[in-house]
Amino acid sequence: MDKVGLLVAMAPAVFVEHSRSPVLTTLAKHFEQFVLNLFNTLRIQEILYTKSPVNEVLQFMCRKKFAQRACIELLETFFDGRHRNSVTQETFEIIFGHTPDGVSLKNLVHFSQLLNSRKFQQYDYGETRNMKTYGAKKPPEYELKKVTTPTLLIYGENDHLVNASDVRKLSRTLPNVVKLYRIEDTKWNHLDYLWSIHIPKLLLPEIVEWLNKYSI
């Protein structure tokens, strides 16, 4: 018996060539190498880490009621699609006590590489180190055909980080997709999977149904 009965993939960031997130796509397309060189020169490996000055200021400001609406608008405008009233004010107050939080520079650069290459491949270190690491000048692609676990793919039409067309492409690539499920709400975005008040109605019933079918 397989160890994993069912893979539930909510907005999986595998193929990201059609990502519409303004900040991430701009950085990926135009500033990937510049940002990498800058941070390497400054010996910075993580940004927005806990207790960093920028993080402290953002969290302090966004917890203030007068600034919360502006923080919400910026979060959705620059990173995701707009979905008004999907997340309650009380939830946002909790969120901004922990968000933003740290992310490694390597993770951001890898995302940029995936977007620019239009492939789901391993990290590109450059030809010299690639030869030492992979035995080839270019990084190898992940072999998705080997992912034989039954997979439930879930996506939203208003997700600007993981575009619906990229999830549909993934569904054609994986060999054992049991269902490609589109959230009924056309405004459903990437943040909604974590924080939306509509999760119990629009997301959980589908997941529970398929978990019951494939429970080990």
How would you sum up this structure, described in words?
With about 220 residues, the protein is mainly alpha-helical. It has one domain (about 5-215): Alpha/Beta hydrolase fold, catalytic domain (Rossmann fold, 3-Layer(aba) Sandwich), CATH 3.40.50. Helices cover about 45% and strands about 10% of the residues. The protein has eleven helices and five strands. A three-stranded parallel β-sheet has the order 1-4-5, sandwiched between helices. Strands 2-3 form a two-stranded antiparallel sheet. Strand 4, helix 8 (about 165-175) and strand 5 (about 175-180) form a beta-alpha-beta unit. Helix 1 packs across helix 6 (about 105-115). The longest helix is centred in the middle third of the chain and has 15 residues, at about 65-80. It is flat and about 55 Å long. This is Acetyltransferase-12. InterPro entries: AB_hydrolase_fold. Keywords: Transferase.
Largest sheet: 3 strands, parallel
Span between N and C termini? 8 Å
Alpha-carbon Rg, integer: 19 Å
Q: What gross morphology would you assign?
A: flat
Q: What CATH architecture do you see?
A: 3-Layer(aba) Sandwich
Helix content: 40-55%
Keywords: Transferase
GO molecular function: transferase activity
Protein name: Acetyltransferase-12
InterPro entries: AB_hydrolase_fold (IPR029058)
List the helices and strands and how they pair.
Blueprint: E1 7-10, H1 22-30, H2 32-41, E2 46-47, H3 53-62, H4 65-79, H5 89-95, E3 103-104, H6 105-117, H7 127-134, E4 151-155, H8 164-173, E5 177-182, H9 192-195, H10 199-202, H11 204-213
Parallel strand pairs: 1-4, 4-5
Antiparallel strand pairs: 2-3
